[in-house]
Design a protein that fits this description.
198 residues
Length: 198
């Protein structure tokens, strides 16, 4: 994973990010609830990884806005548990590009653009939208991506057959080193088994 640069947002940028998050909450309450859970998990894992507080703050805001591009996706597609056809899959996957474009147009939020664009990238470079590798994706963004996946696996409102903590940990550990960084998954599982994510 790429080494980190930068840190926390300025107060003015935080206010602008809060406006974006407020729009998400008004228009898609369920997406906001997911983003809030991911933000809380991400902060726990970031502190487990002993990241400096300015980066923890950036991770928090990045997690809150990571799915903002879903405002441009038909709600029925996001909640469908059946397999999507190719056209539908492309539309859903575009939320990363749309979210990044929106955030890049907001002054002061450039640091949050990678969270929207790259939270579905994979450690092995087989994710989307860019096929970015672990060497390209910042640690902060990869961390949010891991926590995003955890919430999808374990929250009943997002997964029709939500997994227990133990089953989710086993699944993510099996894919560590391919889909996700082994270190990030290890920190996440440590937090989960100690109740930090409850």
């Amino acid at each position: 994973m790429r080494e980190e640069q930068g840190g926390s947002l300025s107060p003015r940028a935080e206010a602008r990010a809060a406006t974006v998050v407020g729009q998400l909450e008004r228009m898609r309450p369920e997406a906001f609830a997911h983003a809030r859970r991911v933000a809380e998990l991400s902060v726990s894992v970031a502190r487990r990884a002993r990241l400096p507080e300015p980066l923890v703050s950036q991770i928090y805001w990045g997690a809150l806005v990571h799915d903002v591009g879903e405002l441009n996706v038909e709600p029925a597609l996001l909640h469908r548990h059946a397999v999507l056809d190719e056209r539908e899959r492309i539309e859903v996957c575009r939320h990363t590009i749309v979210g990044a474009r929106w955030l890049s147009g907001v002054p002061g939020l450039a640091a949050l653009v990678p969270f929207a664009r790259w939270h579905h990238e994979r450690f092995d470079g087989l994710g989307y939208p860019d096929g970015a590798t672990a060497q390209q994706v910042p640690l902060t963004v990869a961390l949010v991506g891991v926590c995003d996946a955890w919430d999808v696996l374990t929250d009943p409102s997002l997964h029709p057959q939500a997994l227990t903590t133990e089953a989710a940990a086993e699944q993510m550990m099996r894919e560590a080193g391919q889909r996700w960084s082994r270190s990030l998954v290890t920190w996440l599982v440590e937090c989960a088994t100690e109740g930090a994510l409850s």
